[in-house]
Protein backbone atom coordinates (compact mmCIF):
# COMPACT_ATOMS: atom_id res chain seq x y z
CA UNK A 1 0.00 0.00 0.00
CA UNK A 2 1.26 3.47 -0.82
CA UNK A 3 1.91 5.95 1.93
CA UNK A 4 1.38 9.68 2.00
CA UNK A 5 3.13 11.80 4.59
CA UNK A 6 2.04 15.35 5.39
CA UNK A 7 5.40 16.73 6.44
CA UNK A 8 5.94 20.02 8.24
CA UNK A 9 9.57 20.94 7.70
CA UNK A 10 9.56 23.85 10.16
CA UNK A 11 10.50 27.47 9.45
CA UNK A 12 12.76 26.75 6.49
CA UNK A 13 16.34 25.98 7.48
CA UNK A 14 17.71 22.46 7.89
CA UNK A 15 18.52 23.07 11.56
CA UNK A 16 14.88 23.36 12.62
CA UNK A 17 13.71 20.23 10.77
CA UNK A 18 12.93 17.22 12.92
CA UNK A 19 14.80 13.99 12.46
CA UNK A 20 11.62 12.40 11.17
CA UNK A 21 10.92 15.10 8.59
CA UNK A 22 14.45 14.63 7.28
CA UNK A 23 14.08 10.84 7.15
CA UNK A 24 10.69 10.96 5.44
CA UNK A 25 11.84 13.40 2.75
CA UNK A 26 15.07 11.43 2.29
CA UNK A 27 13.19 8.17 1.74
CA UNK A 28 10.22 9.41 -0.30
CA UNK A 29 9.75 8.39 -3.92
CA UNK A 30 8.14 11.77 -4.64
CA UNK A 31 8.34 15.09 -2.79
CA UNK A 32 5.32 17.24 -3.58
CA UNK A 33 4.69 20.86 -2.58
CA UNK A 34 3.99 24.46 -3.37
CA UNK A 35 6.84 25.84 -5.52
CA UNK A 36 8.25 28.11 -2.79
CA UNK A 37 8.44 25.21 -0.32
CA UNK A 38 10.08 22.93 -2.86
CA UNK A 39 12.72 25.62 -3.52
CA UNK A 40 13.37 25.88 0.23
CA UNK A 41 13.91 22.18 0.76
CA UNK A 42 15.73 21.28 -2.47
CA UNK A 43 19.20 22.47 -1.41
CA UNK A 44 19.17 20.00 1.49
CA UNK A 45 17.90 17.05 -0.56
CA UNK A 46 19.12 17.79 -4.09
CA UNK A 47 18.64 14.30 -5.51
CA UNK A 48 14.95 13.82 -4.78
CA UNK A 49 12.17 13.64 -7.34
CA UNK A 50 10.17 16.86 -6.81
CA UNK A 51 6.73 17.86 -8.05
CA UNK A 52 6.04 21.57 -7.52
CA UNK A 53 2.70 23.28 -8.07
CA UNK A 54 1.86 26.99 -7.76
CA UNK A 55 -0.03 28.55 -4.86
CA UNK A 56 -3.84 28.31 -4.75
CA UNK A 57 -3.63 24.87 -6.36
CA UNK A 58 -3.84 23.03 -3.04
CA UNK A 59 -6.67 20.73 -4.06
CA UNK A 60 -5.04 19.66 -7.33
CA UNK A 61 -1.73 19.15 -5.56
CA UNK A 62 -3.32 16.93 -2.91
CA UNK A 63 -5.28 14.89 -5.44
CA UNK A 64 -2.08 14.31 -7.37
CA UNK A 65 -0.22 13.23 -4.24
CA UNK A 66 -3.04 10.86 -3.29
CA UNK A 67 -3.02 9.33 -6.79
CA UNK A 68 0.73 8.77 -6.52
CA UNK A 69 0.31 7.04 -3.18
CA UNK A 70 -2.46 4.88 -4.69
CA UNK A 71 0.14 3.70 -7.18
CA UNK A 72 2.17 2.33 -4.28
CA UNK A 73 4.59 5.20 -4.09
CA UNK A 74 5.83 6.79 -0.87
CA UNK A 75 4.96 10.46 -1.13
CA UNK A 76 6.06 13.37 1.07
CA UNK A 77 3.73 16.35 0.81
CA UNK A 78 5.75 19.15 2.30
CA UNK A 79 4.77 22.45 3.84
CA UNK A 80 6.61 24.89 6.05
CA UNK A 81 6.00 25.08 9.79
CA UNK A 82 3.78 22.37 11.21
CA UNK A 83 1.66 20.54 8.61
CA UNK A 84 -1.04 20.25 11.28
CA UNK A 85 -1.43 24.01 11.91
CA UNK A 86 -3.03 25.80 8.95
CA UNK A 87 -1.11 23.19 6.93
CA UNK A 88 -1.82 20.41 4.43
CA UNK A 89 -2.77 17.63 6.88
CA UNK A 90 -6.46 18.49 6.88
CA UNK A 91 -7.08 18.82 3.18
CA UNK A 92 -5.20 15.56 2.56
CA UNK A 93 -7.44 13.68 5.00
CA UNK A 94 -10.55 15.36 3.60
CA UNK A 95 -9.70 14.51 0.01
CA UNK A 96 -8.55 10.96 0.76
CA UNK A 97 -11.93 10.32 2.40
CA UNK A 98 -13.74 11.93 -0.53
CA UNK A 99 -11.74 9.87 -3.06
CA UNK A 100 -12.10 6.72 -0.89
CA UNK A 101 -8.37 6.27 -1.38
CA UNK A 102 -7.05 3.13 0.28
CA UNK A 103 -3.70 4.58 1.32
CA UNK A 104 -1.89 5.13 4.58
CA UNK A 105 -1.63 8.76 5.72
CA UNK A 106 0.68 10.07 8.42
CA UNK A 107 1.24 13.60 9.64
CA UNK A 108 4.77 14.55 10.64
CA UNK A 109 4.57 17.54 12.99
CA UNK A 110 7.10 20.36 12.81
CA UNK A 111 8.07 23.60 14.51
CA UNK A 112 5.25 26.05 13.80
CA UNK A 113 5.85 29.73 12.99
CA UNK A 114 4.53 30.85 16.40
CA UNK A 115 7.22 28.82 18.16
CA UNK A 116 9.97 30.09 15.89
CA UNK A 117 8.89 33.73 16.13
CA UNK A 118 8.60 33.47 19.92
CA UNK A 119 12.13 32.10 20.21
CA UNK A 120 13.45 35.06 18.21
CA UNK A 121 11.61 37.64 20.32
CA UNK A 122 12.36 36.19 23.77
CA UNK A 123 9.65 34.29 25.63
CA UNK A 124 6.25 35.81 24.86
CA UNK A 125 4.33 32.48 24.84
CA UNK A 126 4.91 31.41 28.42
CA UNK A 127 1.21 31.70 29.13
CA UNK A 128 -2.14 30.91 27.54
CA UNK A 129 -2.43 32.18 23.99
CA UNK A 130 -4.54 32.23 20.85
CA UNK A 131 -3.46 31.75 17.26
CA UNK A 132 -5.57 33.56 14.67
CA UNK A 133 -5.05 33.92 10.94
CA UNK A 134 -6.08 37.26 9.44
CA UNK A 135 -6.65 35.68 6.04
CA UNK A 136 -10.33 35.93 5.16
CA UNK A 137 -10.00 33.65 2.14
CA UNK A 138 -11.87 30.94 4.00
CA UNK A 139 -12.98 32.56 7.27
CA UNK A 140 -15.46 35.48 7.28
CA UNK A 141 -13.82 38.74 8.42
CA UNK A 142 -16.51 39.17 11.05
CA UNK A 143 -15.61 35.86 12.70
CA UNK A 144 -11.90 36.68 12.57
CA UNK A 145 -12.49 39.96 14.38
CA UNK A 146 -14.77 38.26 16.90
CA UNK A 147 -11.87 35.94 17.71
CA UNK A 148 -9.56 38.92 18.16
CA UNK A 149 -12.15 40.38 20.52
CA UNK A 150 -12.27 37.11 22.48
CA UNK A 151 -8.47 37.02 22.77
CA UNK A 152 -8.60 40.59 24.05
CA UNK A 153 -11.29 39.80 26.63
CA UNK A 154 -9.46 36.72 27.87
CA UNK A 155 -6.10 38.49 28.17
CA UNK A 156 -4.63 35.82 25.91
CA UNK A 157 -1.29 36.44 24.24
CA UNK A 158 -2.19 36.65 20.56
CA UNK A 159 -0.25 35.31 17.61
CA UNK A 160 -1.37 36.52 14.19
CA UNK A 161 -0.63 34.37 11.13
CA UNK A 162 -1.03 35.88 7.64
CA UNK A 163 -1.38 39.38 9.09
CA UNK A 164 -1.30 41.17 5.75
CA UNK A 165 -1.33 40.57 2.02
CA UNK A 166 -1.40 42.91 -0.96
CA UNK A 167 -5.19 42.87 -0.83
CA UNK A 168 -5.63 42.74 2.94
CA UNK A 169 -3.82 45.77 4.26
CA UNK A 170 -6.24 47.03 6.88
CA UNK A 171 -7.02 43.98 9.02
CA UNK A 172 -4.07 44.46 11.35
CA UNK A 173 -5.35 47.97 12.04
CA UNK A 174 -8.84 46.68 12.77
CA UNK A 175 -7.40 44.06 15.11
CA UNK A 176 -5.31 46.74 16.83
CA UNK A 177 -8.37 48.91 17.47
CA UNK A 178 -10.21 45.98 19.01
CA UNK A 179 -7.31 45.02 21.27
CA UNK A 180 -6.80 48.62 22.41
CA UNK A 181 -10.20 48.37 24.09
CA UNK A 182 -8.71 45.74 26.42
CA UNK A 183 -4.97 46.42 26.54
CA UNK A 184 -2.66 49.29 27.29
CA UNK A 185 -1.14 51.05 24.25
CA UNK A 186 2.25 50.24 25.80
CA UNK A 187 1.61 46.46 25.50
CA UNK A 188 4.65 44.96 23.74
CA UNK A 189 4.20 43.63 20.21
CA UNK A 190 6.83 41.59 18.40
CA UNK A 191 7.03 41.28 14.65
CA UNK A 192 9.20 38.62 13.04
CA UNK A 193 9.65 38.53 9.29
CA UNK A 194 10.83 35.30 7.66
CA UNK A 195 11.17 33.67 11.09
CA UNK A 196 13.88 31.01 11.08
CA UNK A 197 15.10 31.79 7.57
CA UNK A 198 18.24 33.47 6.28
CA UNK A 199 16.38 36.73 5.65
CA UNK A 200 14.96 36.82 9.20
CA UNK A 201 14.41 40.23 10.76
CA UNK A 202 12.51 41.19 13.88
CA UNK A 203 11.45 44.19 15.89
CA UNK A 204 9.59 44.92 19.07
CA UNK A 205 7.09 47.76 19.17
CA UNK A 206 3.90 48.50 21.12
CA UNK A 207 0.22 47.96 20.48
CA UNK A 208 -0.20 51.74 20.22
CA UNK A 209 2.42 51.84 17.44
CA UNK A 210 1.40 48.69 15.62
CA UNK A 211 -0.46 50.51 12.84
CA UNK A 212 2.77 52.27 11.86
CA UNK A 213 4.93 49.13 12.05
CA UNK A 214 6.19 47.26 8.98
CA UNK A 215 4.03 44.14 8.64
CA UNK A 216 3.71 42.05 5.50
CA UNK A 217 2.68 38.59 4.35
CA UNK A 218 5.97 37.10 5.54
CA UNK A 219 5.46 38.39 9.09
CA UNK A 220 4.22 36.82 12.29
CA UNK A 221 2.82 39.32 14.80
CA UNK A 222 2.90 38.45 18.51
CA UNK A 223 0.87 40.67 20.82
CA UNK A 224 1.59 40.43 24.53
CA UNK A 225 -0.97 40.15 27.30
CA UNK A 226 -1.34 42.48 30.28
CA UNK A 227 1.78 41.01 31.96
CA UNK A 228 4.17 41.03 28.99
CA UNK A 229 7.17 43.34 29.26
CA UNK A 230 10.42 44.06 27.43
CA UNK A 231 13.81 43.87 29.10
CA UNK A 232 17.24 43.86 27.47
CA UNK A 233 15.55 43.75 24.09
CA UNK A 234 13.59 40.59 24.85
CA UNK A 235 9.82 40.27 25.04
CA UNK A 236 8.84 38.27 28.11
CA UNK A 237 5.47 37.07 29.37
CA UNK A 238 6.36 35.99 32.90
CA UNK A 239 5.24 32.53 33.85
CA UNK A 240 4.51 33.72 37.35
CA UNK A 241 7.38 32.19 39.33
CA UNK A 242 8.55 35.54 40.69
CA UNK A 243 5.05 36.59 41.76
CA UNK A 244 4.47 33.26 43.48
CA UNK A 245 7.84 32.30 44.91
CA UNK A 246 10.00 35.43 44.61
CA UNK A 247 13.48 35.13 43.17
CA UNK B 1 31.41 34.22 27.27
CA UNK B 2 29.35 31.27 28.35
CA UNK B 3 26.19 30.37 26.52
CA UNK B 4 22.92 29.04 27.84
CA UNK B 5 20.47 27.37 25.48
CA UNK B 6 16.83 26.80 26.39
CA UNK B 7 16.24 23.68 24.33
CA UNK B 8 12.85 22.20 23.56
CA UNK B 9 13.47 18.60 22.58
CA UNK B 10 9.90 17.93 21.42
CA UNK B 11 7.53 15.21 22.65
CA UNK B 12 10.24 12.82 23.80
CA UNK B 13 11.50 10.52 21.06
CA UNK B 14 14.62 11.21 19.03
CA UNK B 15 12.63 11.34 15.80
CA UNK B 16 10.79 14.52 16.73
CA UNK B 17 13.87 16.44 17.87
CA UNK B 18 15.10 19.15 15.57
CA UNK B 19 18.55 19.02 14.10
CA UNK B 20 19.51 22.04 16.19
CA UNK B 21 18.27 20.55 19.47
CA UNK B 22 20.37 17.47 18.75
CA UNK B 23 23.46 19.55 17.90
CA UNK B 24 23.12 21.78 20.96
CA UNK B 25 22.72 18.85 23.38
CA UNK B 26 25.55 17.00 21.65
CA UNK B 27 27.93 19.96 22.01
CA UNK B 28 26.95 21.20 25.48
CA UNK B 29 29.37 20.99 28.41
CA UNK B 30 26.43 20.48 30.75
CA UNK B 31 22.87 19.28 30.11
CA UNK B 32 20.52 20.52 32.82
CA UNK B 33 16.89 19.62 33.39
CA UNK B 34 14.06 18.22 35.44
CA UNK B 35 14.84 14.57 36.29
CA UNK B 36 12.11 13.12 34.04
CA UNK B 37 13.40 15.09 31.02
CA UNK B 38 16.99 14.06 31.68
CA UNK B 39 15.88 10.42 31.78
CA UNK B 40 14.09 10.86 28.45
CA UNK B 41 17.06 12.35 26.65
CA UNK B 42 19.88 10.30 28.21
CA UNK B 43 19.47 7.18 26.06
CA UNK B 44 20.14 9.27 22.92
CA UNK B 45 23.16 11.13 24.34
CA UNK B 46 24.58 8.70 26.91
CA UNK B 47 27.99 10.34 27.27
CA UNK B 48 26.90 13.84 28.27
CA UNK B 49 27.40 15.45 31.66
CA UNK B 50 23.88 15.73 33.12
CA UNK B 51 22.57 17.72 36.07
CA UNK B 52 19.04 16.67 37.06
CA UNK B 53 16.87 18.43 39.60
CA UNK B 54 13.41 17.44 40.84
CA UNK B 55 10.14 19.10 39.79
CA UNK B 56 9.13 22.40 41.43
CA UNK B 57 12.79 23.41 41.66
CA UNK B 58 12.67 25.47 38.45
CA UNK B 59 14.19 28.59 39.96
CA UNK B 60 17.12 26.77 41.59
CA UNK B 61 17.71 24.82 38.40
CA UNK B 62 17.81 27.98 36.30
CA UNK B 63 20.08 29.83 38.71
CA UNK B 64 22.45 26.89 38.62
CA UNK B 65 22.44 26.79 34.82
CA UNK B 66 23.08 30.55 34.67
CA UNK B 67 26.00 30.20 37.10
CA UNK B 68 27.49 27.47 34.94
CA UNK B 69 27.21 29.65 31.84
CA UNK B 70 28.84 32.52 33.75
CA UNK B 71 31.81 30.19 34.26
CA UNK B 72 32.20 30.05 30.48
CA UNK B 73 30.49 26.73 30.02
CA UNK B 74 28.03 25.90 27.25
CA UNK B 75 24.86 24.78 28.95
CA UNK B 76 21.75 23.15 27.48
CA UNK B 77 18.71 23.57 29.70
CA UNK B 78 16.30 20.99 28.32
CA UNK B 79 12.54 20.69 28.49
CA UNK B 80 10.07 18.66 26.52
CA UNK B 81 7.96 20.17 23.76
CA UNK B 82 8.84 23.75 22.83
CA UNK B 83 10.91 25.57 25.45
CA UNK B 84 9.06 28.75 24.42
CA UNK B 85 5.55 27.45 25.21
CA UNK B 86 4.98 27.03 28.96
CA UNK B 87 8.68 26.10 28.95
CA UNK B 88 11.92 27.26 30.53
CA UNK B 89 12.77 30.11 28.12
CA UNK B 90 10.91 32.76 30.12
CA UNK B 91 12.20 31.99 33.58
CA UNK B 92 15.76 31.82 32.24
CA UNK B 93 15.47 35.30 30.71
CA UNK B 94 13.78 36.65 33.84
CA UNK B 95 16.45 35.27 36.16
CA UNK B 96 19.39 36.25 33.93
CA UNK B 97 18.09 39.84 34.00
CA UNK B 98 17.60 39.69 37.75
CA UNK B 99 21.10 38.29 38.26
CA UNK B 100 22.57 40.73 35.72
CA UNK B 101 24.32 37.73 34.21
CA UNK B 102 26.53 38.62 31.28
CA UNK B 103 25.87 35.46 29.27
CA UNK B 104 24.44 34.69 25.88
CA UNK B 105 20.98 33.08 25.90
CA UNK B 106 19.35 31.35 22.96
CA UNK B 107 16.02 29.56 22.72
CA UNK B 108 15.86 26.49 20.50
CA UNK B 109 12.22 25.92 19.55
CA UNK B 110 10.76 22.44 19.34
CA UNK B 111 7.58 20.57 18.43
CA UNK B 112 5.03 21.51 21.09
CA UNK B 113 2.57 19.02 22.57
CA UNK B 114 -0.37 20.59 20.70
CA UNK B 115 1.30 19.85 17.35
CA UNK B 116 2.16 16.30 18.33
CA UNK B 117 -1.29 15.53 19.72
CA UNK B 118 -2.95 17.02 16.65
CA UNK B 119 -0.87 14.84 14.33
CA UNK B 120 -1.97 11.74 16.24
CA UNK B 121 -5.65 12.66 16.14
CA UNK B 122 -5.86 13.76 12.48
CA UNK B 123 -6.00 17.45 11.67
CA UNK B 124 -7.94 19.32 14.37
CA UNK B 125 -5.79 22.49 14.29
CA UNK B 126 -6.42 23.59 10.72
CA UNK B 127 -8.14 26.72 11.99
CA UNK B 128 -7.76 29.39 14.65
CA UNK B 129 -7.22 27.95 18.10
CA UNK B 130 -6.44 28.73 21.72
CA UNK B 131 -4.00 26.99 24.04
CA UNK B 132 -4.93 27.11 27.72
CA UNK B 133 -3.30 25.38 30.68
CA UNK B 134 -5.66 24.18 33.41
CA UNK B 135 -2.92 24.40 36.02
CA UNK B 136 -3.84 27.06 38.58
CA UNK B 137 -0.43 26.97 40.22
CA UNK B 138 0.33 30.39 38.76
CA UNK B 139 -2.89 31.49 37.07
CA UNK B 140 -6.06 32.12 39.10
CA UNK B 141 -8.78 29.57 38.34
CA UNK B 142 -11.22 32.37 37.57
CA UNK B 143 -8.97 33.69 34.78
CA UNK B 144 -8.45 30.20 33.38
CA UNK B 145 -12.20 29.66 33.16
CA UNK B 146 -12.69 33.10 31.63
CA UNK B 147 -10.27 32.06 28.88
CA UNK B 148 -12.24 28.85 28.32
CA UNK B 149 -15.35 31.00 28.03
CA UNK B 150 -13.62 33.25 25.48
CA UNK B 151 -12.50 30.24 23.44
CA UNK B 152 -16.08 29.03 23.48
CA UNK B 153 -17.50 32.39 22.38
CA UNK B 154 -14.96 32.73 19.57
CA UNK B 155 -15.53 29.20 18.26
CA UNK B 156 -11.81 28.59 18.64
CA UNK B 157 -10.51 25.04 18.61
CA UNK B 158 -9.21 24.59 22.15
CA UNK B 159 -6.12 22.76 23.29
CA UNK B 160 -5.85 22.07 27.02
CA UNK B 161 -2.41 21.57 28.58
CA UNK B 162 -2.09 20.13 32.09
CA UNK B 163 -5.79 19.18 32.10
CA UNK B 164 -5.67 17.27 35.38
CA UNK B 165 -3.43 16.47 38.30
CA UNK B 166 -3.97 14.52 41.50
CA UNK B 167 -5.17 17.70 43.18
CA UNK B 168 -6.97 19.27 40.23
CA UNK B 169 -9.53 16.70 39.19
CA UNK B 170 -12.57 18.87 38.52
CA UNK B 171 -11.29 21.63 36.20
CA UNK B 172 -11.89 19.63 33.02
CA UNK B 173 -15.50 19.22 34.11
CA UNK B 174 -15.86 22.94 34.76
CA UNK B 175 -14.37 23.71 31.36
CA UNK B 176 -16.74 21.21 29.75
CA UNK B 177 -19.78 22.88 31.31
CA UNK B 178 -18.66 26.28 30.02
CA UNK B 179 -18.03 25.01 26.49
CA UNK B 180 -21.40 23.22 26.38
CA UNK B 181 -23.05 26.64 26.52
CA UNK B 182 -21.51 27.36 23.10
CA UNK B 183 -20.97 23.98 21.46
CA UNK B 184 -22.98 20.92 20.59
CA UNK B 185 -22.52 17.91 22.91
CA UNK B 186 -21.55 15.98 19.77
CA UNK B 187 -18.48 18.22 19.21
CA UNK B 188 -15.47 15.90 18.78
CA UNK B 189 -12.84 15.87 21.51
CA UNK B 190 -9.48 14.14 21.15
CA UNK B 191 -7.39 13.00 24.09
CA UNK B 192 -3.78 12.00 23.60
CA UNK B 193 -1.79 10.55 26.46
CA UNK B 194 2.01 10.65 26.31
CA UNK B 195 1.84 12.17 22.80
CA UNK B 196 4.88 11.21 20.75
CA UNK B 197 6.27 8.78 23.30
CA UNK B 198 6.46 4.98 23.38
CA UNK B 199 3.49 4.76 25.77
CA UNK B 200 1.31 6.97 23.52
CA UNK B 201 -2.41 6.25 23.51
CA UNK B 202 -5.28 8.28 22.10
CA UNK B 203 -9.01 8.30 21.84
CA UNK B 204 -11.70 10.44 20.29
CA UNK B 205 -14.87 11.18 22.23
CA UNK B 206 -17.39 14.04 22.37
CA UNK B 207 -17.78 17.15 24.47
CA UNK B 208 -20.90 15.61 25.99
CA UNK B 209 -18.88 12.56 27.09
CA UNK B 210 -15.71 14.39 28.16
CA UNK B 211 -16.46 14.20 31.88
CA UNK B 212 -16.46 10.40 31.67
CA UNK B 213 -13.30 10.19 29.57
CA UNK B 214 -9.92 9.12 30.96
CA UNK B 215 -7.85 12.30 31.35
CA UNK B 216 -4.73 12.64 33.48
CA UNK B 217 -1.65 14.81 33.87
CA UNK B 218 0.03 13.16 30.89
CA UNK B 219 -2.87 14.01 28.57
CA UNK B 220 -3.47 16.74 26.04
CA UNK B 221 -7.15 17.46 25.36
CA UNK B 222 -8.16 18.91 21.98
CA UNK B 223 -11.71 20.20 21.71
CA UNK B 224 -13.04 20.84 18.22
CA UNK B 225 -14.90 23.91 17.04
CA UNK B 226 -18.36 23.98 15.44
CA UNK B 227 -16.97 22.60 12.16
CA UNK B 228 -14.83 19.75 13.47
CA UNK B 229 -15.96 16.25 12.53
CA UNK B 230 -14.69 12.68 12.73
CA UNK B 231 -14.28 10.47 9.68
CA UNK B 232 -12.44 7.17 9.40
CA UNK B 233 -11.27 7.59 12.97
CA UNK B 234 -9.63 10.95 12.31
CA UNK B 235 -10.63 14.28 13.86
CA UNK B 236 -10.72 16.96 11.18
CA UNK B 237 -11.37 20.70 11.37
CA UNK B 238 -11.89 21.52 7.70
CA UNK B 239 -9.80 24.38 6.42
CA UNK B 240 -12.68 25.45 4.20
CA UNK B 241 -11.47 24.41 0.74
CA UNK B 242 -14.52 22.27 0.06
CA UNK B 243 -16.97 24.95 1.14
CA UNK B 244 -15.22 27.55 -1.00
CA UNK B 245 -14.06 25.67 -4.08
CA UNK B 246 -15.83 22.29 -3.91
CA UNK B 247 -13.83 19.13 -4.49
Describe this structure in words.
The structure is a homodimer of 247-residue chains. Chain A is an alpha/beta fold. Chain A is 31% helix and 25% strand. The first copy, chain A, has eight helices and 13 strands. A five-stranded parallel β-sheet of chain A has the order 3-2-4-1-5, sandwiched between helices. In chain A, strand 2, helix 2 and strand 3 form a beta-alpha-beta unit. In chain A, helix 3 packs across helix 4 and helix 6 runs parallel beside helix 7. The model of chain A has no long low-confidence stretch (mean pLDDT 95). Chains A and B meet through helix 1, helix 4, helix 5, strand 6 and strand 7 of A and helix 1, helix 4, strand 5, helix 5 and strand 6 of B.
What's the quick description here?
The first copy, chain A, has eight helices and 13 strands. Chain A is an alpha/beta fold. The radius of gyration of chain A is 20 Å and the shape is elongated.
Largest interface: A-B, 77 and 79 residues
CA-atom Rg of chain A in angstroms: 20 Å
- Tally of helical segments of chain A: 8
In whole angstroms, the N-to-C terminal distance of chain A is: 57 Å
Strand content of chain A: 15-25%
Report the oligomer.
homodimer
Helix coverage percent of chain A: 25-40%
**Secondary structure: number of strands of chain A:** 13
Contiguous low-pLDDT stretches of chain A (5 residues minimum) are none
Structural class of chain A: alpha/beta
* Biggest sheet features of chain A: 5 strands, parallel
Report the mean per-residue pLDDT of chain A as an integer.
95
- The strand line-up of the biggest sheet of chain A is 3-2-4-1-5
Inertia-based shape of chain A: elongated
Order of helices and strands of chain A: EHEHEHEHEHEEHEHEEEEEH
